[in-house]
Write a structure and sequence with these properties.
Strand content: under 5%
Largest sheet: none
Helix content: over 70%
Shape: rod-shaped
Distance between the termini: 159 Å
Number of strands: 0
């Protein structure tokens, strides 16, 4: 009887061991599937990260190019404004000289009696 009990206990332990082994095998398969999924996701994220990095670098390059272009345009605008101010000062000086010459002609015309003959 004792041998039958021991035999029954051994079968129960064997059945429990087999159930535990089957559960562990299912868990291992599930974990392997999750690992595979995580690796695929990591690869996808790596590609996306690389693409985002390239886009960021491209955008940073474009921004730098635009900033340089804006600086060049500002410098050109400042130079043109300085040139305009110089030309305006020159034009004002020429107007002043013209007014002076016109005034001298008027004064000269009044004092010369011959100029009254032609008016």
């Amino acid at each position: 009887m004792h041998l039958l009990t021991l035999s029954g206990n051994a079968r129960n332990h064997t059945a429990q061991g087999e159930e535990s082994l089957a559960a562990l095998e299912r868990e291992a398969e599930r974990l392997q599937s999750e690992i595979s999924h995580a690796n695929n996701e990591q690869e996808t994220l790596g590609r996306q990260s690389g693409q985002a990095r390239l886009q960021f670098e491209s955008a940073a390059d474009a921004l730098k190019r635009l900033e340089d272009e804006m600086d060049a345009l500002r410098d050109a605008l400042q130079a043109r404004r300085a040139e305009e101010a110089t030309q305006r000062a020159n034009a004002n000086q020429l107007r002043s000289q013209q007014a002076t010459i016109a005034g001298r002609r008027q004064l000269a015309g009044r004092s010369d009696p011959r100029s009254q003959l032609f008016n």
